[in-house]
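User: Predict the structure for this protein chain, please.
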Amino acid sequence: MSRGLRSIAMLLGAAALLAGCERPPVDTVQRGFRGTGMELVYNPRTEIKVAEANQAPPISDPAGTEGPKAKDIYKNVPVLGHLSVAEFTRNMAAITEWVAPKEGCAYCHDLEKMGEDTKYTKVVARRMIQMTQHINADWKPHIAQTGVTCYTCHRGQAVPRQVWFKAPPQDLKSDFIGDRIGQNAPMQMVGLSSLTYDPYSLYLSGDQTIGVGGPTALPNGHVASIVHTEQTYGLMMHMSDSLGVNCTYCHNTRNFKNWESSPPQRTVAWHGIRMARDLNNDYLEPLTKSFPANRLGPLGDVAKVNCATCHQGVYKPLYGAPMAKGYPELLVNTAATGSPAKASAALPPPMAEATRSVLYFGVGSSALESEQAKGLTLLIATLVSRPAAKASISGYHSATGELASNQQLANDRALKVRDSIVAAGIVPARVVLDKPLQAEANLSGEDPAARRVEVFVK
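Assistant: Here is the predicted structure, written as C-alpha cells:
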C-alpha cells in the first residue's frame, strides 16, 4: 500500500473511532424572537439524572372531616389541631414519609411522651409546617397555585440537601495580597468562578440592592459599583444553576435591564428572592437557639434556604407537580391563630392615587400581594415624571398580638413596598421610610384597615 493510501486509511480509521466516541449533542429551546440569542441549552445526559431526582411522590387518599378534632384528643397540637383526627393522622403520616421515612415518628417525638416538646426536631417541625402554610398562602406571586409541601425541600431526607450557612470571612492576617472581597476562592455556589463566594448572605438574608450598572452615564445615586456587579453575578449564577436554565430564562438579551421586554419569569424570580429572604429571616434564623451546636454552621448560624433548596436543578420544583393541592391543610396560614386565617380576598382594595397609595396586608403577613401592588402604578408614574420627588413610606399594624412583633411586621411591610418601588426603576435614595404620624391609627383590633402601608409623594 502506498504512503498516500495508508494516510487515507489512518484518517478514516481515526474518524470512525471519533464518531463512535462522540457524545450526543445538546438540545436548545428557543425562547425569544429569532436572532436574539434567547435560547436555553440542555444536556440530555444530565437531564435524565435531574428528572429522576424530581419525581413527585404519590398523594395519599383524602381523610374524612367528621369526628372530634385533633386538639380535643391529643395534647399540645397548636398548629393542626383544628383538623379531624383522621385528617391530622393523614398529614402526620405524609410528613413522616416526606422528611424522615427511615426514622419514622421517633425523629420528632419521644414515643413515651408524645405530647411533650422534648426533642428539638418537634419544635422545628411545627414551625416548618407554619412556614409551608405561609408560603402557600402569602407568596402566590412566586409559587402561583402550585404550592409546596415538606417534600419539596426534604425529598425524604431529614435535612434538605441544598441549604447554606454563612461563609467564614477572609483571614486578612495570613493573606499578603490584602482583602480579596470574597473573590478568587472558587466555590460551587458561584460556578467555580472568581466571583464573590457568598451572595446568599447579601441577597437571601440581607437586602442589598441588586444591580449591575447605571441606566445612564455617570448616574446620580446609583449604588451598583464593580463590587456590587460581581456580587450580583454570583447570585445570578446560583439562580441559573439552581433552576437548570441560563440568563435567557428571565432576561431578554436585547436589553437585560429592561423589565418591559423581559419574560414574566423575571417578575416571578424577583418575588422568589424576597420569599427566600423572608423565610430565612422570619422563620429559620429565629430557630437558631432551638438547634444543637452540631446542627449549626461554622459561625453558629442555622441552615437557611436558597433557590436550590426547592428547585434542585429544574425551573419548577418537581416540574410543577401540584402536590399541595392534595393537602389543603397546608394551603392556609394558621400561624397567627392556630386556625385557618381569613382569605386574602377579604382585604380592602388598594388606594391608588397619583401622589398617595394605601396597600393592605393579611393577618401576620408581610407579603405584598399582586392585587395590592397594583395600587402603586400611578404613584410610580408620578415619581418617574418628577425626578426630584421622593416617596415616603409608613407601615402600620393591628393591635392584636405582641407590640414588638407587630412593630417589626409593620417595618417588614414597609420594606416590601420599598422594594417594589425600587424594582420599578426608582433610585433607592428617593424612597425613604418614615414612622407613622398617628400611633392611634394602629388601635383597630384585627380590622384589615389597620394592616396597611401608606405611601406619599413629597
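Confidence is low (pLDDT under 50) at residues 341-345, 437-445.
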